[in-house]
Amino acid sequence: MQFAAGKRNPGFLSGLYLNWWKGEGAKYAVDSTTLLLLKSDKTLAECDFSTAKGVVWDTLQERCIDASLFDGDDVVFAKRATLFDCLVTSVPDAAQRLCAAMQDGVRALLGRRCLVHVVPRLKCESFVVPEVEIYVVARDDAVAWSRVNADGFSCGGWTPNNPILDGRQDDVFAPHTAFDAVLVAANVGTLNSIRQESTLRLQTLLAVIFAVASDRAPYPYLKSGGTPSTFGVLFPHSSCQDRSCLKSGVPVIFPYYISDVVLNAEGITTVKAWYANLWAQQPDRRTKAERSAHFLNLGMNSKGAESFVNCYIALDALLGQRGSVEASILAGLAKLQLDPKQVEKAQWLFELRNELVHGGSRFVEEWPRYPAYVRHFDGDPMIDVLKIAQTALLRTPSML
């Protein structure tokens, strides 16, 4: 690998360029150093592994010509087998100083930001979920949007109804799909960790919202051929060193439905209560529910066998126990007071899950017992597994 050694001056290509050859142990050494770095101080916990690994490499490349650490001639002219054979100080001293430099490098990349994502077909009043720092803003609610700015986020003049940054005339930061609601997830971390963690939180919230809305809808929501939103933008908080606004794509986390997904005032209260009750539970119970919601969201956004398997994984994540998956899920559903008919459906559907997972069937309708299921329950396995998973998820915080 070739790089400019020493302190870097952005915009300038001049400097001392060195070539390093990565030995067989280089990856292991850097990965291990990165793990130790992230555990060296609790303030670094919000940094993602990939960013921290980059800091490790950057620090070594910057400090390799530091005369108080390394012999410059040995480094530049490759007189030694490895970089650390070129040390002019003790190993403990070098380790301490390099670790401190790496910690500073990570801290410089940490900051508070929010990820903004737009959602089509979601109709509701604006509300906030404080447990996960998410604002749900109706597109035309200027007052609710102003709260995001009042809480210190610098959105550069961007608003849902005028998605253009101050001083720009282009539509780079404008969604290219229709939308009805804006989700704003606030977090602390690096760009990568905020993007990842905020997306996971939004997936959980949308799974819960859709479950609540579906429970109150007179008919199942059907997906349309419309283009789902993948729009995302990261806005900095006023406390953030890096004040730039960055476009950040988000995977599809809410389908484009044929009809509006309506969350009324009662539904909003149910969503907020779900989070409040869950946050009163032990951390392991909260983790189970969040992971279940994640797979439920994947089931919402996939099709066919993949959708079915994801929905059943949501049940497994919530209620399953290793070594007795089926029995623990059925017992959990009974404890959650699902209708006995629903529990019976889950028992049949576990067989379908096994068929799909182990290759016995390639798609739902190929399941040998599919005709019998339809006759016996007068239902559709795809619709039923989604309904069972949604009901279990919604009841978990207050009943388990």
Low-confidence stretches: none
- The counted number of beta strands is 10
How large is the count of helical segments?
Answer: 13
Structural class: alpha+beta
Major sheet details: 6 strands, antiparallel
Query: What's the overall geometry?
Result: globular
Question: Numbering strands along the chain, what is their spatial order in the largest sheet?
Answer: 5-6-7-3-8-9
Report the span from N to C terminus. Answer: 54 Å
Order of helices and strands: EEHHHHEEEEHEHEEEHHHHHHH
Taken as a percent bin, the fraction of beta residues is: 5-15%
In the residues, how many domains can be counted? Answer: 3
Cα Rg: 26 Å
Task: Please bin the fraction of helical residues.
Answer: 40-55%
Mean pLDDT: 93
Quick recap:
The strands form three sheets. The chain has a six-stranded antiparallel β-sheet with strand order 5-6-7-3-8-9, sandwiched between helices. Strands 1-2 form a two-stranded antiparallel ribbon. A two-stranded parallel sheet has the order 4-10.
Q: How does this structure look, described?
A:
This protein has 400 residues and is α+β, with helices and mostly antiparallel strands. The protein folds into three domains: 2-109, no CATH class; 111-276, no CATH class; 283-399, no CATH class. 48% of the residues lie in helices and 11% in strands. It is built from 13 helices and ten strands. The chain has helices at 26-39, 49-63, 72-76, 91-109, 142-150, 191-216, 265-279, 283-300, 304-319, 325-335, 340-357, 370-377, 381-399, and strands spanning 2-4, 17-19, 111-119, 122-124, 127-129, 134-138, 181-189, 233-236, 246-247, 261-263. It has a six-stranded antiparallel β-sheet, sandwiched between helices. Strands 1-2 form a two-stranded antiparallel ribbon. 36% of the residues are buried.
